[in-house]
Amino acid sequence: MSAPEERAALPPASLYSCALRLLRAEPDGRLPEGGYALPDPPERRSRTRTSWKTACAALTEVLTEALTPPTSRTDTDTGTDTDTGTGAAINASGVARAAEETHLRLAGLNIRGGHIQSVVTGLPPADEVWARALGRCLTRTGTSPMAVCVGLALLTRLGEPEDVPYLRVLGSLQDLADHAVRALDPIDGPTAALVWLGRHASGPELRGLVDALAAGEESSVPERLEAVLRKVGEVRPETARRVAEAVRLADLLREARPGETGLVAGAGRLLRRISRVNDYRAEVLACPVAVDLFEAFAVRAAELPPTLDHHAVLLSVALELHSGPSRLLEWGTGRREALLDRLESVLGRPDWRALLAGGSAQSCDPAERRRLDWARRTVRQPFRRDAGGTGPAGRLRIEATVLDPVDPDIVETRILIDGRPLVPAVFGRGGAHAPEYLLDSGRLRATDEPREVQLAEAYCTEGCCGALHVTVRRDGDHVIWSDWRRPAPPSSLPPARELPEYRFEAAAYDAEIARAENDHSWAWPARKTARLIAAGLRDRPDLLTRWDVEQGWIGTDFRDRDRTVVNLAHRAGPSSGPGAEDTHRQHLVWHIPDDGTSPEHRAAAALHRLATADPRTYGGGGAGRSARPS
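RE: above sequence
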């Protein structure tokens, strides 16, 4: 028999042993960027994929039998038992036989790992000790991805600290990394985060940090971490969260020497990053160390010197604690309020107040001027005590919140009921709509006629991942929010609880909606100009109909937030008569720069121009051009 034939005759190596061999060949114990590819035998590529329902039914049958332990745990062949680490004895050869049989039966299926997780989640084992032993055997000896995924899914629920080294090794394989992370998260958060970063992190700063952590080079971690934190606004929110968990950032803040302001400011930027809701669920809600991290940052905040950037960091964290998703964390009595008091005391010091009072809007570059103006407008908002939702009259609070202008998509409508942010609590696929949509339009006003309102839409679009709808109606002395509509959670998660009916005192509700609609303090001049133009067009629709023009989006330019943008549309051809239906729509984009006059003056001038001149003749905005809202 030739050498290749001898190798082919050998039983395949387990995926764990393959990954371990590859890792041991890496210099200094580093993790491979992106992970290693799985062995891919020809039969796997040629296998025909069965339907999801058929595969899940077959997998359920296999696992139901595998998770049923033999009637006796004594090895009748050897008379020996195996300690599982929990004080119970398990038949070692029986587990091995069950794992081998499971492995063989799984070979005939073709199902994705996420579906495996879903099936295992729906099959609570009758004997956890047996199921844990089976999971360990499949992860450590499994030779197919499906068998190992089943083992990882079992250990996601039943894993213990002794499983960490094996899970970390398996996490170096591309197709198994996320499953290994899911199993590691409840056991060892920092290791789970490191495995996740090894699979997903890219760029020299992040890879340098991952290499230092993987190699155990603790002395180089702080320097590499600060390099990451300086650019944390450029990374995905989940990446930022995993960095905080992998380096134990809260502990680093507590142990840092006085004067290490780079670490403190970077931690604040990271908190701001993981709290964003513009791309689905805020990562701060998935961070088990978030409360400790907020506290560690607030304790060290007083060490930061008064600069505009540091002011923006402190104010951003305060806004998050005041009305952002972080209010949903398990704070306990008074802890969150104590952190806000700390931040308020820092920003209230004379040197910090002088920073805002002494800044010159004329002498700053545009970016710094916008940031300074934002800080001046916003500095008191997070320290108001009117968002607590105490008593029926205070159940509802609606705030238009403008975030640091260095970030994209900076305007949020925050809806708090009983002091809890509604949209991140019940939707988690995107933020609430802008104030112009919910407030300026009057959509939240309550009438005797029920009205369905879309409060939020998935970041991708409603057609892709859904939206959050509620019906608003007046019922005597009360206003009721009911008949909620939202997308179902993924099949791998438990069903979402039914949302309750919220009942508000009508007088208090009307007062809060009126206050929010008439609050223009958050808007910068170009945004206020846009709101005034839109209000004028709502009051006088004839300004557009006379020109056979329709109103589109009105807001501020994404690239230049000091410029108001008015989007209009018209038909390129006759609006009525023969051939009207065959014409196509052309879009007009009208840019209105900040000329130093008041928003009221600019809006009045724009409305006057619409009343006297056909907008299709305007210069400065070509058909088909577009501008995004800020």
